[in-house]
Design a protein that fits this description.
By secondary structure, the protein is mainly α. It has one domain: MFS general substrate transporter like domains (Growth Hormone, Chain: A, Up-down Bundle), CATH 1.20.1250. The protein contains 15 helices and no strands. Helix 11 runs antiparallel to helix 12 and helix 12 packs antiparallel against helix 13. The protein is globular, with a radius of gyration of 22 Å. The two termini are 39 Å apart. The N terminus and C terminus are likely disordered.
């Protein structure tokens, strides 16, 4: 992965005028399915593994999530910087990371669910090291994977298709985990054989999915790839107000989502005493998100990304409040609340990636430097920070309630702690995330104007009518776009 200034192979052109082939959209979605064999498995089940199998207390596990996921956030910045300094003549800028990083990532997923019996202190130290290594490996695959969307096309509707594809890929994995794995995690039973089988299968399937992504995707946005200095990368971020707004909103939203997903098994098993509803939830969520994935591109075209984002956040807030305040004896109302919550969050998850890709062009327009890697890594940095906060809040809520990993029945306070993590925290943080997006100013119309001006700049630079590519691309946007 040597650095190069060679231009990218021509594809759809700077404006991304042609539609992406179906195989590229499917292949891109396969990449996020592979990502979530690591990410969703750990977010859904690692706390359960820590408390019920490894014997790590909930309070210690919550602190572990906070510390390691904050480390992961800085790993994202490192990965983004590495991506921006990398380009290969044969495979491009992003795909080599997917090719060479997939196997280490899946092996580390296996190791995280196999903590040896080396004493309480030794197990906790192993958990810290293994989870931190997993986070670094995930950054080195996920940052280039996510950054690649903005290099595949500049058409808003095509980007929405990519966002939908990755959401579907992730959801298929989540549904499979909910349908086939979660019902097996009964209180008081030995869970280690389940996690051993699961992670061995995922090592094989995950690598195969990453290879599918590698062979079916291409970087189509034609541009010169200069050696971008660290100062230039930081300048790309400076003044990128839309990216800042999106990062803050995503931090809040992800904190709530990770709190909910981390205690999902606890909520159905220990609060509702209906672990058999997890497969039902997974199927409902799968159908709902598939429908949303089909509808969102059209909704985006009609109403714009920001409006759809805010609406989905509001839906998630309503669901979270139902989860918090519905008595656990009213099982089906509580279940409906959970469905509404995850439905709203799934919608946000579809739209957010298309919104992030737009900020790449905004950063290029502002500074003259196109840095997909550092922009995506900063976005991912805030998301990882949100995941750190959400996972920690979930662990702390369990600890506050006095959750006992060795007990088949939990106390009333423990159930309240689970409800706080599954309902109240997502609702409060979701409301704050939606409020933040009211300040987001990069509308679809403004983005279209920016893309048109960027195309004109590139055409001028390639014709030799202006200065070099780094000096003739200073902002000159018309009043219509500002």
């Amino acid at each position: 992965m040597t650095s190069s200034t060679a231009p990218q192979t021509p594809g759809t052109g700077i404006a991304g005028k042609d539609r992406l082939p179906l195989k590229s959209i499917i292949g891109y979605g396969a990449g996020d399915a592979a990502n979530n064999l690591a990410f969703t498995t750990t977010s859904m089940f690692l706390l359960v593994y820590f408390t019920d199998t490894a014997g790590i207390p909930a309070l210690a596990a919550g602190t572990l999530f906070l510390v390691v996921r904050l480390f992961d956030a800085f790993s994202d910045l490192f990965a983004g910087r590495l991506v921006d300094r990398t380009n290969t003549r044969r495979w491009g800028k992003f795909r080599p990371f997917i090719l060479f990083g997939s196997a280490p990532l899946m092996i580390l997923t296996f190791l995280n669910f196999h903590i040896p019996e080396i004493g309480a202190g030794g197990k906790l130290a192993y958990a810290y090291i293994a989870y931190a290594a997993l986070g670094l490996a995930y950054s080195l695959v996920n940052i280039p994977y996510g950054s690649m969307a903005s290099a595949m096309t500049q058409r808003p509707k095509e980007r929405a298709k990519l966002a939908s594809a990755r959401t579907v890929g992730a959801l298929l994995v989540s549904a499979a985990l909910g349908v086939f794995v979660a019902p097996l995690l009964k209180a008081g039973t030995s869970l280690q054989p389940i996690f051993t089988t699961l992670t061995i299968v995922f090592m094989v399937v995950g690598v195969a999915l990453y290879l599918l992504t590698f062979f079916t995707t291409r970087e189509n946005v034609v541009r010169e790839v200069p050696k971008v200095s660290f100062r230039q990368s930081m300048q790309t971020l400076k003044g990128n107000k839309p990216l800042l707004m999106l990062c803050i909103s995503s931090l809040l939203y992800l904190s709530g989502l990770l709190s909910l997903s981390t205690v999902q098994v606890y909520y159905f098993r220990d609060a509702l005493h209906s672990l058999n509803l997890v497969p039902v939830l997974s199927i409902v969520q799968l159908v709902l998100t598939l429908a949303l994935s089909a509808w969102v591109p059209a909704l985006v075209s009609k109403f714009g990304k920001r409006s759809i984002y805010i609406v989905f956040v509001a839906v998630g807030v309503v669901g979270g409040l139902l989860v918090m305040f519905t008595p656990t004896s009213l099982t089906w109302i509580a279940f409906l609340g959970f469905v509404i919550a995850v439905g709203g969050m799934s919608g946000v998850g579809i739209v957010v990636w298309a919104v992030e890709a737009d900020t790449v062009e905004y950063g290029e327009w502002k500074t003259g430097v196109r840095s997909e890697g550092i922009i995506y890594s900063l976005f991912s940095f805030t998301r990882k920070t949100g995941q750190a906060i959400g996972g920690a809040l979930a662990g702390y809520a369990l600890a506050w309630g006095g959750y006992d990993g060795h007990s088949a029945v939990q106390s009333a306070q423990a159930v309240t702690g689970i409800q706080i993590a599954a309902g109240l925290i997502p609702a409060v943080l979701g409301a704050a995330a939606g409020a933040m997006m009211f300040f987001y100013e990069l509308t679809d119309a403004r983005h279209a104007t920016i893309v048109e001006e960027l195309r004109a700049r590139h055409e001028q630079a390639s014709a030799g009518l202006g200065a070099d590519a780094e000096t003739d691309v200073r902002p000159r946007l018309s009043e219509e776009a500002s």
